[in-house]
Design brief:
Elements lengths: L1 E6 L11 E7 L8 E7 L10 H9 L3 E5 L31 H9 L4 H7 L13 H23 L4 E11 L1 H12 L3 E7 L5 H7 L4 H9 L4 H8 L14 E6 L7 H10 L7 E5 L7 H15 L10 H8 L10
Parallel strand pairs: 3-4, 3-5, 5-6, 6-7, 7-8
Antiparallel strand pairs: 1-2, 2-4
């Protein structure tokens, strides 16, 4: 695993936010040149929390690049890039026991060790008040950062630039869907517990109350929010999306059903796009997720067949037992 950093192409008022930090997990040797995936974390999370997922996908034959989104992780302004608590849960308790994060740990989507070490940090805590332009700039910066990171990833000799994909959870799923419509080099994507319509997400989600309160206090309406976020909203670019897998929960309080429905209508079902509903809240069980995600990736971004074989099988093929005859 390698640390990768570069200057963001978008400059903000905060220097700490303007360097992109990421983990890169190269594919197994047997897989090269291999397909590669960009993984995007959720709101108030950080890249470290997706490492178990990244390591699993690497074992499946993929190279994986996992960045911190703007103002998250190592880009947190306070310097404490741990996943931040919500206002209702900032009480000093073990972070792995918080209701939302505990579910992520149980599902295997978050690393409990790094979460416990993180404590109550400030990852994703935004200093914008009611400044709508600053919120829009943060989303635009995330998209441009990912595109520049994709340049680096596609140029790696062990990566096949014709087999690139993106996946994300929660906010990362929203951004992954947007990138699928904006960046043509992404051939397939996964939006896990994502959706569209930033305005509705801000005003109706069960999280982000501080952001919602500040924007409404500044006098911004839903119409204002929709117009401001339009260039970055996955709904805007939905007609160009191909091979997107959406996985959503019917009882999800974070991503409203209306946001999922609007994105699904925008991405033109039948273009390799697929929507899977489950009886879940914001944290789906790992088994069904793995099943659907791997089937989708193997269909649209297949790794080398030899990368999927266990190491003991490959070693037998390379080194025949004594007396065994081989043909070459």
């Amino acid at each position: 695993m390698q640390h990768h950093s570069f200057p963001s192409p978008v400059r903000t008022r905060w220097a700490a936010n303007d360097t992109v930090h990421a983990w890169y997990l190269p594919p197994p040797e047997a897989a090269a040149p291999a397909p590669a995936l960009v993984l995007l974390h959720g709101y108030r999370m950080a890249k470290d929390h997706l490492l178990p997922v990244a390591q699993y996908l690497r074992r499946m034959g993929y190279g994986v690049w996992v960045p911190d989104l703007p103002y998250h992780g190592q880009r947190t302004l306070s310097g404490n890039g741990a996943p931040g608590p919500s206002p209702a849960r900032d009480n000093g308790q073990d972070p792995a026991s918080r209701p939302g994060l505990a579910g992520l740990v149980r599902a295997g989507l978050v690393d409990p060790v790094s979460l416990a070490e993180a404590g109550a940090g400030d990852s994703g805590r935004l200093p914008f008040g009611g400044d709508l332009d600053a919120y829009c700039q943060a989303v635009g910066q995330a998209i441009e950062d990912m595109r520049l990171g994709l340049d680096w990833l596609a140029a790696r000799p062990e990566i096949d630039p014709a087999r690139l994909g993106v996946g994300g959870y929660s906010l990362g799923g929203v951004l992954a869907a947007a990138l699928m419509g904006i960046e043509p080099r992404f051939r397939a994507g996964v939006a896990l517990m994502g959706g569209g319509d930033f305005a509705e997400l801000i005003l109706s989600s069960s999280i982000g109350e501080d952001v919602r309160r500040q924007l409404l206090a500044a006098g911004w309406s839903k119409t204002d929010l929709r117009e401001a976020f339009r260039p970055y909203d996955p709904i805007t670019h939905g007609a160009r999306v191909r091979n997107l897998l959406m996985i959503n929960g019917r009882r999800d309080p974070v991503i409203p059903r209306s946001c999922v429905d609007r994105l699904w209508q925008a991405v033109r079902p039948g273009s390799g796009n697929r929507l899977v509903w489950g009886p879940w809240t914001h944290v789906p069980p790992p088994g069904p997720v793995r099943h659907h995600v791997l089937a989708h990736l193997r269909r649209h971004l297949p790794p080398a067949a030899r990368a999927l074989r266990p190491a003991w099988w490959r070693s037998l093929r390379r080194a025949p037992a004594a007396g065994q005859r081989t043909r070459s």
